[in-house]
Design brief:
Strand order of the largest sheet: 1-7-6-5-4-3-2
Protein name: SRPBCC domain-containing protein
Structural class: alpha+beta
Organism: Kineobactrum salinum
CATH architecture: 2-Layer Sandwich
CATH superfamily: START domain
Family: Belongs to the AHA1 family.
InterPro entries: ASHA1/2-like_C, START-like_dom_sf
CATH topology: Alpha-D-Glucose-1,6-Bisphosphate, Chain A, domain 4
Helix content: 25-40%
Length: 154
């Protein structure tokens, strides 16, 4: 019997931007390029986003990539659920092995809060990545911070 253990990274941020604007920022290729580049730069990387390709519908796929010292870092997945502006669920892979295991799911939940919202990301992934939880949370947190800043929040 195969055990399919997972671990979760979780990050939450109060944003001064409406849930609709945050949700749309995840599905607009031009906006993705901007906030992803900014988030990468805050992580000390070049922020050289090369590919942003997506088919924004349930079952649609996406590919994002950026250039790093070791080469092109490619991230891809499929949209599993879209409930604008409350919930976006997608798979997130960085290797073919990750995709074969199919143990990487990201859930973005947006809850209205006055004129802004509270964004929460939960990334469930294979237990083999348990030592990387802090780094994963840092990455998602930087993405939310950049969306907040670029869309007009703090």
């Amino acid at each position: 019997m195969t055990t399919r253990e997972t671990v979760s990274a979780r990050v939450s941020r109060r944003m001064d931007v409406s849930a609709e604007r945050v949700f749309d920022a995840w599905l607009d290729p031009d906006k993705i390029r901007i906030w992803m580049s900014a988030a990468l730069k805050t992580a000390g990387l070049a922020g050289d986003v090369r590919r942003v390709e997506l088919d924004a519908r349930p079952g649609g796929r996406f590919v994002f990539s950026d250039m790093r010292d070791e080469g092109e870092a490619v991230h891809w997945g499929s949209y599993l659920e879209m409930d604008r502006p409350h919930r976006l669920v997608f798979t997130w892979f960085t290797s073919e092995n990750d995709e074969r295991q199919n143990l990487s799911t990201v859930t973005l939940t947006l809850e209205p809060d006055n004129k802004g919202c509270v964004a929460t990301i939960i990334h469930e992934m294979s237990a083999e990545w348990a030592d990387y939880i802090d780094r994963v949370e840092g990455g998602w947190g930087r993405m939310l911070a950049q969306i907040d800043a670029i869309e007009g929040g703090a």
